[in-house]
Amino acid sequence: MVYDQMYVGFSAATGSTNHPSHYVLGWSFMVNGEAESLDYRRLPQLPPSKSKRKPKHIVVWLLPVAICTFALMVAATVILVVRRRIKYAEVLEDWEQEYGPHWFSYKDLHRATDGFKEKELLGVGGFGRVYRGVWPASNIEVAVKRVSHESGQGMKEFVAEIVSIGKLRHRNVVQLLGYCRRKGELLLVYDYMPNGSLDRYLYDHTKPSLDWARRFMIIKGVASALLYLHEEWEQVVVHRNIKASNVLVDGELNGKLGDFGLARLCQHGTNL
What we know:
Blueprint: H1 50-88, H2 94-99, E1 102-103, H3 106-112, E2 121-124, E3 128-134, E4 141-147, H4 154-165, E5 176-182, E6 185-191, H5 198-203, H6 212-232, E7 236-238, E8 247-249, E9 255-257, E10 264-266
Parallel strand pairs: 1-5
Antiparallel strand pairs: 2-3, 3-4, 4-6, 5-6, 7-10, 8-9
Protein backbone atom coordinates (compact mmCIF):
# COMPACT_ATOMS: atom_id res chain seq x y z
CA MET A 1 0.00 0.00 0.00
CA VAL A 2 1.37 3.45 -0.95
CA TYR A 3 0.38 6.59 0.97
CA ASP A 4 0.23 10.12 -0.35
CA GLN A 5 3.39 10.95 1.57
CA MET A 6 6.02 8.38 2.43
CA TYR A 7 9.75 7.72 2.13
CA VAL A 8 11.22 5.30 -0.37
CA GLY A 9 14.79 3.93 -0.04
CA PHE A 10 17.17 1.42 -1.60
CA SER A 11 19.46 -1.09 0.07
CA ALA A 12 21.84 -3.70 -1.34
CA ALA A 13 24.69 -5.91 -0.09
CA THR A 14 28.20 -5.78 -1.62
CA GLY A 15 29.35 -9.13 -0.31
CA SER A 16 33.01 -9.59 0.72
CA THR A 17 34.30 -6.68 -1.41
CA ASN A 18 34.75 -3.16 -0.08
CA HIS A 19 33.68 -1.50 -3.30
CA PRO A 20 30.00 -0.72 -4.08
CA SER A 21 28.61 -2.61 -7.03
CA HIS A 22 24.94 -1.51 -6.93
CA TYR A 23 23.70 1.90 -8.10
CA VAL A 24 20.27 3.57 -8.53
CA LEU A 25 20.40 5.76 -11.62
CA GLY A 26 16.71 6.72 -11.59
CA TRP A 27 13.22 5.66 -10.59
CA SER A 28 9.57 6.42 -11.45
CA PHE A 29 6.37 5.71 -9.60
CA MET A 30 2.86 7.15 -9.18
CA VAL A 31 0.35 7.03 -6.32
CA ASN A 32 -2.49 6.49 -8.76
CA GLY A 33 -2.14 5.07 -12.19
CA GLU A 34 0.79 3.79 -14.20
CA ALA A 35 4.27 5.13 -13.44
CA GLU A 36 5.97 7.19 -16.12
CA SER A 37 8.47 5.28 -18.23
CA LEU A 38 12.15 6.09 -17.68
CA ASP A 39 14.13 7.70 -20.49
CA TYR A 40 17.35 5.65 -20.38
CA ARG A 41 19.16 8.16 -22.58
CA ARG A 42 18.85 10.80 -19.87
CA LEU A 43 20.03 8.62 -17.03
CA PRO A 44 23.45 9.48 -15.53
CA GLN A 45 26.52 7.41 -16.46
CA LEU A 46 27.71 4.68 -14.18
CA PRO A 47 30.74 5.74 -12.12
CA PRO A 48 34.01 4.11 -13.29
CA SER A 49 34.63 0.74 -11.72
CA LYS A 50 37.58 0.69 -9.30
CA SER A 51 38.14 -2.97 -10.08
CA LYS A 52 38.94 -2.00 -13.69
CA ARG A 53 41.39 0.65 -12.54
CA LYS A 54 43.38 -1.76 -10.42
CA PRO A 55 45.33 -3.37 -13.28
CA LYS A 56 46.31 0.11 -14.51
CA HIS A 57 47.71 0.94 -11.09
CA ILE A 58 49.60 -2.34 -11.04
CA VAL A 59 51.11 -1.63 -14.45
CA VAL A 60 52.12 1.86 -13.31
CA TRP A 61 54.38 0.56 -10.53
CA LEU A 62 55.34 -2.78 -12.09
CA LEU A 63 56.73 -1.20 -15.28
CA PRO A 64 59.47 0.85 -13.55
CA VAL A 65 60.39 -2.15 -11.39
CA ALA A 66 60.71 -4.37 -14.48
CA ILE A 67 62.80 -1.74 -16.30
CA CYS A 68 65.12 -1.29 -13.31
CA THR A 69 65.50 -5.06 -12.90
CA PHE A 70 66.35 -5.50 -16.58
CA ALA A 71 68.84 -2.61 -16.45
CA LEU A 72 70.56 -4.13 -13.39
CA MET A 73 70.80 -7.53 -15.11
CA VAL A 74 72.33 -5.96 -18.23
CA ALA A 75 74.79 -3.95 -16.13
CA ALA A 76 75.80 -7.03 -14.13
CA THR A 77 76.35 -9.03 -17.33
CA VAL A 78 78.49 -6.27 -18.84
CA ILE A 79 80.57 -6.02 -15.65
CA LEU A 80 81.15 -9.79 -15.58
CA VAL A 81 82.19 -9.87 -19.24
CA VAL A 82 84.55 -6.91 -18.84
CA ARG A 83 86.06 -8.39 -15.68
CA ARG A 84 86.60 -11.73 -17.39
CA ARG A 85 88.26 -10.08 -20.39
CA ILE A 86 90.52 -8.03 -18.14
CA LYS A 87 91.40 -11.12 -16.13
CA TYR A 88 92.42 -13.16 -19.17
CA ALA A 89 93.74 -10.35 -21.33
CA GLU A 90 97.47 -10.14 -21.89
CA VAL A 91 99.48 -7.29 -23.35
CA LEU A 92 102.18 -8.46 -25.73
CA GLU A 93 105.65 -7.54 -24.57
CA ASP A 94 108.49 -6.57 -26.90
CA TRP A 95 110.08 -10.01 -26.92
CA GLU A 96 106.74 -11.60 -27.83
CA GLN A 97 106.23 -9.31 -30.81
CA GLU A 98 109.69 -10.16 -32.13
CA TYR A 99 109.92 -13.88 -31.46
CA GLY A 100 106.43 -14.95 -30.58
CA PRO A 101 104.93 -17.77 -32.64
CA HIS A 102 101.21 -18.36 -32.82
CA TRP A 103 99.22 -17.30 -29.75
CA PHE A 104 96.59 -19.74 -28.46
CA SER A 105 93.73 -18.92 -26.16
CA TYR A 106 93.60 -20.63 -22.79
CA LYS A 107 90.06 -21.78 -23.53
CA ASP A 108 91.21 -23.67 -26.64
CA LEU A 109 94.10 -25.35 -24.80
CA HIS A 110 91.89 -26.24 -21.85
CA ARG A 111 89.42 -27.87 -24.23
CA ALA A 112 92.13 -29.65 -26.24
CA THR A 113 93.62 -31.27 -23.12
CA ASP A 114 90.20 -32.12 -21.65
CA GLY A 115 90.80 -29.73 -18.78
CA PHE A 116 94.41 -30.86 -18.16
CA LYS A 117 93.23 -34.16 -16.73
CA GLU A 118 95.68 -36.75 -15.43
CA LYS A 119 94.74 -39.20 -18.17
CA GLU A 120 96.30 -36.80 -20.72
CA LEU A 121 99.52 -36.34 -18.74
CA LEU A 122 102.61 -37.28 -20.77
CA GLY A 123 105.32 -36.42 -18.29
CA VAL A 124 106.52 -34.23 -15.44
CA GLY A 125 109.71 -32.18 -15.52
CA GLY A 126 111.54 -29.74 -13.33
CA PHE A 127 109.65 -26.75 -14.73
CA GLY A 128 106.20 -28.17 -15.34
CA ARG A 129 103.95 -30.88 -16.72
CA VAL A 130 103.32 -31.93 -20.32
CA TYR A 131 99.85 -32.96 -21.53
CA ARG A 132 98.57 -34.49 -24.71
CA GLY A 133 96.01 -32.39 -26.54
CA VAL A 134 93.75 -32.80 -29.57
CA TRP A 135 92.30 -29.92 -31.57
CA PRO A 136 88.55 -30.68 -31.84
CA ALA A 137 88.17 -29.25 -35.35
CA SER A 138 91.09 -31.08 -37.00
CA ASN A 139 91.91 -33.96 -34.59
CA ILE A 140 95.58 -32.93 -34.76
CA GLU A 141 97.53 -34.02 -31.69
CA VAL A 142 99.77 -31.57 -29.84
CA ALA A 143 101.84 -31.53 -26.67
CA VAL A 144 101.01 -28.77 -24.19
CA LYS A 145 103.63 -27.90 -21.60
CA ARG A 146 102.17 -26.23 -18.54
CA VAL A 147 105.07 -24.31 -17.05
CA SER A 148 105.02 -24.16 -13.27
CA HIS A 149 104.38 -20.56 -12.22
CA GLU A 150 105.24 -21.45 -8.62
CA SER A 151 108.87 -21.94 -9.58
CA GLY A 152 111.04 -18.85 -9.72
CA GLN A 153 112.56 -20.24 -12.92
CA GLY A 154 109.17 -20.81 -14.56
CA MET A 155 108.89 -17.47 -16.33
CA LYS A 156 112.58 -17.51 -17.30
CA GLU A 157 112.20 -20.94 -18.88
CA PHE A 158 109.02 -19.85 -20.64
CA VAL A 159 110.70 -16.82 -22.20
CA ALA A 160 113.86 -18.78 -22.99
CA GLU A 161 111.95 -21.41 -24.96
CA ILE A 162 110.01 -18.88 -27.02
CA VAL A 163 113.04 -16.68 -27.71
CA SER A 164 115.35 -19.59 -28.52
CA ILE A 165 113.13 -21.85 -30.65
CA GLY A 166 110.35 -19.46 -31.69
CA LYS A 167 111.99 -19.07 -35.11
CA LEU A 168 113.88 -22.36 -35.39
CA ARG A 169 112.92 -24.65 -38.28
CA HIS A 170 114.72 -27.99 -38.47
CA ARG A 171 113.54 -31.56 -38.94
CA ASN A 172 115.41 -32.69 -35.81
CA VAL A 173 114.24 -29.87 -33.52
CA VAL A 174 110.85 -30.17 -31.81
CA GLN A 175 108.65 -27.51 -33.40
CA LEU A 176 107.18 -24.88 -31.11
CA LEU A 177 103.69 -24.24 -32.49
CA GLY A 178 102.62 -21.51 -30.13
CA TYR A 179 102.04 -20.44 -26.58
CA CYS A 180 99.56 -18.96 -24.15
CA ARG A 181 100.33 -16.50 -21.40
CA ARG A 182 97.71 -15.24 -19.03
CA LYS A 183 97.56 -14.36 -15.36
CA GLY A 184 99.00 -17.32 -13.44
CA GLU A 185 99.30 -19.57 -16.51
CA LEU A 186 102.26 -20.20 -18.85
CA LEU A 187 101.64 -22.72 -21.63
CA LEU A 188 103.80 -23.88 -24.55
CA VAL A 189 102.43 -25.90 -27.49
CA TYR A 190 104.64 -28.32 -29.47
CA ASP A 191 104.37 -30.97 -32.12
CA TYR A 192 103.20 -34.20 -30.51
CA MET A 193 105.81 -36.97 -30.33
CA PRO A 194 103.84 -40.24 -30.06
CA ASN A 195 106.83 -42.32 -28.91
CA GLY A 196 107.80 -40.07 -26.04
CA SER A 197 111.38 -39.46 -24.98
CA LEU A 198 114.49 -41.51 -25.74
CA ASP A 199 115.20 -42.38 -22.10
CA ARG A 200 112.14 -44.65 -22.03
CA TYR A 201 113.66 -46.81 -24.75
CA LEU A 202 117.02 -46.89 -23.00
CA TYR A 203 115.98 -47.48 -19.39
CA ASP A 204 112.36 -48.71 -19.42
CA HIS A 205 112.42 -52.48 -19.84
CA THR A 206 108.72 -52.54 -20.76
CA LYS A 207 109.58 -50.70 -23.99
CA PRO A 208 110.99 -52.60 -26.97
CA SER A 209 114.76 -52.30 -27.25
CA LEU A 210 116.21 -50.22 -30.09
CA ASP A 211 118.68 -51.91 -32.39
CA TRP A 212 122.02 -50.24 -33.11
CA ALA A 213 120.94 -49.01 -36.54
CA ARG A 214 117.96 -47.16 -35.03
CA ARG A 215 120.10 -45.78 -32.21
CA PHE A 216 122.64 -44.50 -34.71
CA MET A 217 119.86 -42.79 -36.73
CA ILE A 218 118.54 -41.08 -33.59
CA ILE A 219 121.94 -39.80 -32.45
CA LYS A 220 122.71 -38.69 -36.00
CA GLY A 221 119.50 -36.64 -35.97
CA VAL A 222 120.50 -35.03 -32.66
CA ALA A 223 123.94 -34.21 -34.09
CA SER A 224 122.27 -32.64 -37.13
CA ALA A 225 120.15 -30.50 -34.82
CA LEU A 226 123.23 -29.35 -32.88
CA LEU A 227 125.04 -28.44 -36.10
CA TYR A 228 122.05 -26.33 -37.09
CA LEU A 229 121.90 -24.64 -33.68
CA HIS A 230 125.63 -23.94 -33.45
CA GLU A 231 126.60 -23.16 -37.05
CA GLU A 232 123.70 -22.81 -39.47
CA TRP A 233 121.15 -20.57 -37.76
CA GLU A 234 121.49 -16.77 -37.66
CA GLN A 235 122.53 -16.93 -34.00
CA VAL A 236 124.21 -19.56 -31.89
CA VAL A 237 121.75 -21.47 -29.72
CA VAL A 238 123.44 -23.17 -26.77
CA HIS A 239 121.04 -25.84 -25.49
CA ARG A 240 122.86 -26.54 -22.17
CA ASN A 241 120.65 -29.47 -21.21
CA ILE A 242 121.16 -32.31 -23.68
CA LYS A 243 120.17 -35.68 -22.24
CA ALA A 244 118.09 -38.68 -23.25
CA SER A 245 114.91 -37.35 -21.61
CA ASN A 246 115.13 -34.21 -23.78
CA VAL A 247 115.39 -36.15 -27.03
CA LEU A 248 111.89 -36.87 -28.35
CA VAL A 249 111.06 -39.72 -30.73
CA ASP A 250 108.45 -39.25 -33.45
CA GLY A 251 106.23 -41.85 -35.08
CA GLU A 252 109.06 -43.02 -37.37
CA LEU A 253 111.56 -43.22 -34.49
CA ASN A 254 113.46 -40.13 -35.59
CA GLY A 255 115.19 -38.20 -32.82
CA LYS A 256 114.23 -34.57 -32.20
CA LEU A 257 115.90 -32.26 -29.71
CA GLY A 258 113.51 -30.53 -27.32
CA ASP A 259 113.23 -28.69 -23.98
CA PHE A 260 115.07 -25.41 -24.58
CA GLY A 261 114.26 -24.01 -21.13
CA LEU A 262 117.94 -23.51 -20.26
CA ALA A 263 119.04 -22.42 -23.75
CA ARG A 264 120.98 -19.24 -24.39
CA LEU A 265 121.48 -17.17 -27.54
CA CYS A 266 124.73 -15.53 -28.62
CA GLN A 267 126.30 -14.14 -31.76
CA HIS A 268 128.56 -16.19 -33.97
CA GLY A 269 132.22 -15.82 -33.03
CA THR A 270 131.43 -15.06 -29.39
CA ASN A 271 133.63 -16.79 -26.82
CA LEU A 272 131.46 -18.76 -24.41
